[in-house]
């Protein structure tokens, strides 16, 4: 969770907990200037990229869990669309330029206030160079994927479902969460 401010960023008065008029949630508020501090979830955007029946994964070089594998994805920046964020993260982490085909999965993790948006995409340029957040990146056939070293259970489930659907030639769009402690998706 992000650090909670104690003072108003506009007038420097102390913030207090309260419910703004017309709001449904308690928020940090400033009695001096009326500023309201909102804490909103972070959005992580990424892609499943396929080439010749293989799937692009990157090996993390930074915490959390360096050395584990994941889909190329990362935090959305202000001023970006989710699509732009996903394609930027793919480029930064893998040196691959891609085109988005369609949305594939939206997954909420309320405990850590994150929302994952994963797109289906195809590689249009592969440079073989990747950024400092990545130890390695490569395309894996389904039977070569290091399943036990996938960073996050939801990413593993998204990728497993995608591979099954790819083989069947039919794709869904999924929503899910781990609010109950159990990862689940709905179609």
UniProtKB/TrEMBL annotation:
Its cofactor is Mg(2+). GO terms for molecular function: hydrolase activity. CDD domains: NUDIX_Hydrolase (cd04511). Residues 40-162 form the Nudix hydrolase domain. It holds the Pfam family Zn_ribbon_Nudix. It comes from the Bacteria. The keyword Aminoacyl-tRNA synthetase does not apply. SUPFAM superfamilies: Nudix (SSF55811). Keywords: Hydrolase, Magnesium. Belongs to the Nudix hydrolase family. This is ADP-ribose pyrophosphatase YjhB, NUDIX family.
């Amino acid at each position: 969770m992000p650090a909670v401010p104690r003072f108003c960023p506009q007038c420097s008065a102390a913030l207090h907990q309260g419910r703004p008029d017309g709001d449904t949630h308690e928020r940090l508020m400033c009695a001096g200037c009326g500023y309201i501090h909102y804490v909103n979830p972070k959005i992580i955007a990424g892609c499943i990229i396929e080439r010749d029946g293989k799937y692009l994964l990157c090996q993390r070089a930074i915490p959390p869990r360096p050395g584990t594998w994941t889909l190329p994805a990362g935090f959305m920046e202000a001023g970006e669309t989710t699509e732009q964020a996903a394609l930027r993260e793919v480029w930064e982490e893998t040196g691959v330029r891609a085109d988005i085909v369609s949305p594939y999965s939206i997954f909420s993790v309320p405990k850590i206030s994150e929302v994952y948006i994963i797109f289906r995409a195809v590689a249009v340029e592969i440079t073989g160079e990747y950024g400092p957040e990545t130890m390695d990146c490569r395309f894996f056939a389904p039977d070569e994927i290091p399943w036990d070293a996938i960073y996050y259970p939801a990413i593993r489930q998204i990728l497993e479902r995608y591979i099954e659907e790819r083989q069947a030639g039919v794709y869904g769009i999924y929503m899910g969460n781990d609010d109950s402690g159990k990862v689940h998706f709905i179609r």
